[in-house]
């Protein structure tokens, strides 16, 4: 699957893009996707995209979420459910982006470095 390359000068661009993309995926009831971040050495840019976004939160996923939630609430599992509704999934990814990506600024030599 081909992803759209995006470069960003600061984390606000990444955050806004993640918000737009996850809002769309949430509206079409999709969950279980990933953020891929890389470095394009030819263009000297950070590139990113959301990948693996083919899982819809359908009847079976809702049933799996409910079952895992009940077991987790009864302390039969050590970890919270991995299947979560699209709203929570989008919120979790946006929180991850805000928490883990720092502003990128241009240096005097034209290189990009984290602040």
UniProtKB/TrEMBL annotation:
Keywords assigned: ATP-binding, Kinase, Nucleotide-binding, Transferase
Matches recorded under Gene3D superfamilies: 2-Layer Sandwich
Keyword Kinase: yes
UniProt GO MF annotations: 1-phosphatidylinositol-3-phosphate 5-kinase activity; ATP binding
Superkingdom per UniProt: Eukaryota
Residues annotated as domain PIPK: 1-101
Keyword Transferase: yes
GO BP annotations, alphabetical order: phosphatidylinositol phosphate biosynthetic process
InterPro entries reported for this sequence: PInositol-4-P-4/5-kinase_C_sf, PInositol-4-P-4/5-kinase_core
CC annotations in GO: endosome membrane
PANTHER family named among the record's database cross-references: 1-PHOSPHATIDYLINOSITOL 3-PHOSPHATE 5-KINASE-RELATED, 1-PHOSPHATIDYLINOSITOL-3-PHOSPHATE 5-KINASE
Protein name: PIPK domain-containing protein
Organism: Heracleum sosnowskyi
